[in-house]
Design a protein that fits this description.
Shape: globular
Number of strands: 29
Structural class: alpha/beta
Strand order of the largest sheet: 1-2-3-4-6-9
Number of helices: 16
Radius of gyration: 25 Å
C-alpha cells in the first residue's frame, strides 16, 4: 500500500475491528466466569453456618461519622463501605470506595490522593467505548493499589432533567449511548480483579427530595429508556453488583422495589450478581424479600436490618431461609467471578500518577466539545497578548462535588464552602483540581503577555480585555450530589460578565466548565465557545491543547442543550417549591409527598422529546464542531445492519462521530439513535463503517416483551440528532421477543 491515507484508514479499520472483537470476547468470558462462579458460590453457601450467613449481607461506612459509629475494623480502609469476610471459608472482606471518576477523596481522611477523570458527561462526550474502558481500567487500578476491591462506579441514569445535581456524574440522555459507554467503563474497572457496580437502579432523575420523590412512569416507557440503558450496560459490562437508588418507583423505595429488583433485574434479565443498597436507602427488613441482597452503610439507615433480625427470620421461616441463601450466593458469585479471593487487593500498591494523568488528559481532550467558532479558533501561538478571565483559571479547573469527589496530589487548589451540617457538609463544597489553564496557555503561546482577572469586577475584566488581542472567559457552573441547580443560567453574574467582555473585545472565547447544559444569552456576541465540562486532573493542558489546535476537537454532546427551561418536559423542577432539602437529600420538614411524573415524556428523553415537540434547542444531542470537515455518504441498510462511508474532506487529521438515526417507523415519526462509531481520519482519508442495529431501539415494550411492527423503517445519517442526511428506507418484518 503506497497511499499513506489508505494505509491509515485500513490500519484504523483493523484497530476498530480488533477492539470490537476483544470487547465481545471479554463479555463472553465474563459471562462464563459468572456462570462458573455461581456454581461455586452455591457450594460455599452449603458450608456456611447460620451466623456466617449474615456476615456478607450488611456492612458499615468505615468513616468517623460521629454519634454511634462502630469501631473501625483492623483491616478496613477509610472509604465508602466495609463488609467483613469469613476467614474459615477463604472469603475476603469487601472494601468499597467511590466512584466513577476515580478513588474518592473522602475529605482527605486517608491522606492520599488519586487521579481524577473528567466528569461522566465529559467522558460520554468522547462517544468512545475504548476510551471509557481505558479510563475505567485506570481508576480501577488505583482503587486496587489502595487495597479496595469494590469500586462504586457505573453511573448510568439517563438525564431526564439537566438541573439534576448529579448530571455531571452520569453519561447521556440516550439509552444506547449510555449503555454502551458504561459497559465499557465497567469492563475496564473489573479488569483489575475488582468488582464494579452499575448504579443507581433506577429512575434516579433528581436530587431534590431524593429519598422521597416517587417516580410515576409506565412500564413500557421505563423499559424503552432508563431500564434499557441499564440492560445494555449489564450486558456489555457484566458488573458484579447493582446499586439501587434512593427514590421511589410506583410508591416503593427503589431498594425495596419488588418490580425493579426481582421482576425486572433478576427474573426478566436473569442477573446473577448482587444488589447492594445506596447508603441510607434501606427502609426495612422487608427489602430483602423485595430483592435487596446487601445493606450498605448501615449506620445511615433507621436500623441494622440484615444482621440478627435477618438471621432470626431465616431460622423460623423457609421463605426467609431460601432468600438468605440466595443473598449469600449472589454476593459470592460476584466475589468469585472477579477473583477477589485468588487475587486479593492489598494497600500500598504502586501508582504511576504520570501515566494515569495522561489517560485523564486524553479523556478530557476527546470529551471537549467545540460549540461555536467564527474562525477564531484555533488560536495562534504567535499571539502577543491574551487576557484570561474568571473561573480560577490561573490555577485550577472545577470539579463536581459529593461522594464522587476526587483530588490529586496536594489536595484541592480552591475550596469554597457551601454550608450544611455534619459529615455531609464536607462533601458539599466547590472544589477545584490543581491544573492551571493559564500556565498551559502560556506554555503554548510562549511570547504572549498572558494576564488574569478573576472576574469579580466587570469593569476590571473589560479593561484587561480591551488591552489584549484575545480574551478567554472561563465560566463555571457547579453541580453536586445532594442539590439540584435551580435553573440553567450561569451563576454569580457570569452571563453579564461575558456580554461585557465580548462587547469590549470581538475576539472573545468562552470556555465553559459546567456539569451540564447552560443557557447562553451572549452566544451571538462571542467568537467561540468551548464546552470543557469538569475536565479532571489534567484539564488545564487539555483545554489549552484544543484552544491552540494541538488537539482537533472531536467531542459531541451526549445531551441536549435547551434554549430555556420552558422547553423541558417539566419547566418547573419537581419539588422546587415543596420543601427546602437538607444536605442529605431528604426534606428538613413538611410532607414527604413528592411525585415526579415521567409519563409526560415517557421514553422520549432529551432529543427524542425535542423531536416530538418540534422544538429547536440551543444545541442538539450529538452536536460538535471540528477544525476539519467530514462527509458521511452512501448509507445502505439491510435488515439490522447498516453501512456507509465517512470521509475527512478537510485539510487536517480529525475524528468524526458517525451517527445513525431511526427517523420513521411504519409511518410513525420516531427519533432514535440507532448506532454510532467514532472514526479518526487523516486529511482526505475515508473509511467504511459497518453498524449492527439493536432491535430494541426499533421496538416497543408491550405485554411483557418487545414488539416490532412490520413495515418501512426509515434511517438517516446525522451530524447530530437535528441535522440529518438523505433518508433510506428498508422493509422489516414483524417481530416479538422476550427481554
Amino acid at each position: 500500500m503506497r497511499n499513506p491515507m489508505l494505509r491509515s484508514s485500513v490500519s484504523l479499520a483493523i484497530a476498530v475491528s480488533s477492539i470490537a472483537v476483544s470487547s465481545a470476547h471479554a463479555q463472553q468470558a465474563r459471562a462464563v466466569d459468572m456462570k462458573a462462579a455461581d456454581a461455586r458460590a452455591a457450594a460455599t453457601v452449603k458450608q456456611m453456618t447460620a451466623d456466617e450467613k449474615v456476615v456478607l449481607t450488611h456492612g458499615i461506612m468505615p468513616l468517623p461519622l460521629g454519634g454511634p459509629t462502630p469501631p473501625m475494623p483492623a483491616d478496613a480502609i477509610a472509604g465508602a463501605g466495609y463488609i467483613p469476610g469469613i476467614e474459615r471459608l477463604g472469603i475476603p472482606a469487601l472494601k468499597e470506595t467511590d466512584a466513577s471518576l476515580g478513588v474518592s477523596y473522602v475529605m482527605g481522611i486517608r491522606r492520599d490522593f488519586s487521579t481524577a477523570l473528567p466528569s461522566g458527561v465529559a467522558q460520554a462526550a468522547s462517544w468512545n467505548p475504548d476510551l471509557m474502558y481505558r479510563g475505567g481500567a485506570m481508576i480501577g487500578s488505583e482503587a486496587r493499589a489502595k487495597g479496595f476491591n469494590v469500586l462504586l462506579a457505573g453511573g448510568v441514569n439517563l438525564m431526564r432533567d439537566p438541573r439534576n445535581g448529579r448530571t455531571f456524574e452520569y453519561l447521556a440522555e440516550d439509552p444506547l449511548l449510555s449503555g454502551m459507554l458504561v459497559g465499557a467503563a465497567i469492563r475496564g474497572v473489573q479488569s483489575n480483579n475488582i468488582i464494579s457496580t452499575i448504579k443507581h437502579f433506577a429512575l434516579n432523575g433528581q436530587e431534590t427530595g431524593r429519598k422521597y420523590v416517587d417516580v410515576k412512569i409506565s412500564e413500557s416507557a421505563a423499559r424503552e429508556s432508563d431500564l434499557l440503558a441499564f440492560k445494555i450496560g449489564i450486558e456489555q459490562g457484566q458488573p458484579g453488583s447493582v446499586m439501587c437508588a434512593y427514590n421511589r418507583v410506583w410508591g416503593e423505595q427503589a431498594c425495596a422495589s419488588d418490580w425493579l429488583l426481582n421482576k425486572v433485574l433478576k427474573q426478566s434479565w436473569g442477573y446473577k450478581g448482587f444488589v447492594m443498597s445506596d447508603w441510607g436507602a434501606v427502609p426495612n427488613i422487608e427489602a430483602a424479600l423485595k430483592g435487596l441482597d446487601q445493606q450498605s452503610g448501615e449506620q445511615l439507615d433507621p436500623g441494622v436490618f440484615f444482621g440478627d433480625k435477618l438471621k432470626d427470620k431465616a431460622a423460623s421461616d423457609p421463605t426467609w431461609k431460601a432468600r438468605l441463601d440466595d443473598m449469600n450466593r449472589r454476593v459470592l458469585t460476584a466475589i468469585y467471578a472477579s477473583g477477589l479471593d485468588k487475587n486479593p487487593a492489598k494497600p500500598g500498591g504502586k501508582i504511576d500518577f504520570a501515566a494515569n494523568g495522561m489517560v485523564a488528559e486524553e479523556v478530557a481532550k476527546q470529551g471537549i466539545v467545540l460549540l461555536k467558532n467564527n474562525s477564531a479558533l484555533p488560536l495562534a501561538k504567535s499571539a502577543k497578548s491574551i487576557a484570561i478571565i474568571g473561573g480560577y483559571a490561573d490555577g485550577a479547573v472545577l470539579s463536581g462535588a459529593g461522594s464522587s469527589q476526587v483530588h490529586g496530589e496536594g489536595g484541592p487548589a480552591v475550596v469554597r464552602p457551601v454550608g450544611g451540617k455534619g459529615v455531609w457538609a464536607g462533601f458539599i463544597a466547590q472544589q477545584y483540581h490543581r491544573s492551571s489553564p493559564m500556565d498551559a496557555i502560556q506554555a503554548l503561546a510562549k511570547d504572549a503577555k498572558v494576564t488574569f482577572r478573576d472576574g469579580r469586577y466587570i469593569a476590571d475584566a473589560v479593561e484587561k480585555a480591551k488591552q489584549s488581542e484575545v480574551a478567554i472567559v472561563f465560566a463555571t457552573q457547579w453541580q453536586t450530589e445532594g442539590l439540584d441547580v435551580p435553573d440553567l443560567s450561569l451563576p454569580d453574574g457570569q452571563d453579564e460578565l461575558i456580554a461585557a467582555v465580548a462587547a469590549a473585545n470581538p475576539n472573545t472565547i468562552v470556555v465553559l466548565e459546567t456539569g451540564g447544559p447552560v443557557k447562553m444569552p451572549w452566544l451571538d456576541k462571542v467568537a467561540g465557545v468551548v464546552e470543557a465540562w469538569y475536565p479532571g486532573a489534567r484539564g488545564g493542558p487539555a483545554i489549552a491543547s484544543v484552544l491552540f489546535g494541538d488537539t482537533n476537537p472531536s467531542g459531541r454532546l451526549p445531551l441536549t442543550f435547551p434554549a430555556s427551561e420552558a422547553q423541558l418536559p417539566r419547566p418547573k423542577l419537581d419539588g422546587s417549591d415543596w420543601v427546602e432539602p437538607d444536605f442529605s437529600g431528604g426534606p428538613s420538614s413538611g410532607s414527604d409527598k413528592l411525585t415526579a411524573d415521567y409519563d409526560i415524556e415517557g421514553s422520549d428523553v432529551g432529543y427524542r422529546w425535542f423531536a416530538r415537540q418540534g422544538a429547536k434547542p440551543l444545541f442538539p444531542f450529538g452536536y460538535g464542531l471540528s477544525y476539519t470537515t467530514f462527509d458521511s455518504t452512501g448509507l445502505k441498510v439491510k435488515g439490522l445492519t447498516a453501512s456507509f462511508t465517512v470521509k475527512n474532506t478537510g485539510k487536517r487529521e480529525g475524528a468524526e462521530v458517525a451517527q445513525l438515526y431511526l427517523v420513521d417507523r411504519a409511518g410513525q415519526a420516531k427519533r432514535r439513535l440507532a448506532g454510532f462509531q467514532r472514526v479518526n481520519l487523516a486529511a482526505g482519508a475515508s473509511q467504511t463503517v459497518n453498524l449492527t442495529i439493536d432491535p430494541r431501539i426499533l421496538a416497543d415494550w408491550k405485554d411483557g416483551g418487545w414488539t416490532m411492527p412490520a413495515g418501512e423503517y426509515t434511517f438517516a445519517l446525522g451530524k447530530d440528532a437535528e441535522t440529518l442526511g438523505t433518508p433510506v428506507k428498508v422493509k422489516l418484518p414483524a417481530k416479538r421477543w422476550k427481554d
